[in-house]
Amino acid sequence: MRIAFLADPLDHFKIYNDTYGHLQGDNALQQVAAVLAADLRAGDAAYRYGGEEFVILYTDENLTAAVNGTERIRNTVAALAIPHRGNNPPGLLTISAGVATYNPHTNLDTDANSIIEQADQALYTAKQHGRNRIAAPNPPNLALHKD
Question: What is the pTM of this model?
Fold first, then answer.
């Protein structure tokens, strides 16, 4: 079994709440959660991790498949076309994500905290490169994904 962990926050969400109000912010979170739920397969799980962050646990995914699945979610959230004046470009609500994988057969001395840290560091890489992106730690040919 492999597990792919990703940290998935909404870009500039504090500005969104400050601009549109917390009720609209909650509505946006619900819409993003619905996108996540619709994308899950049997055995996968999504959780709200804190604030505007979500975590998806993909089972039996390698890094390439996890990044591709997360990219699909990123595109679906953008397609919701939720206005966000404080997120320019594109003027819409977007997400950034960091993806990391765990394989118990090859990562014998890796624990859950290490996987979370890898995903978190990849998330910061995505944010540093402009947001609305997916990043993963040291994947060949998968450093950053964007339209």
Answer: 0.86
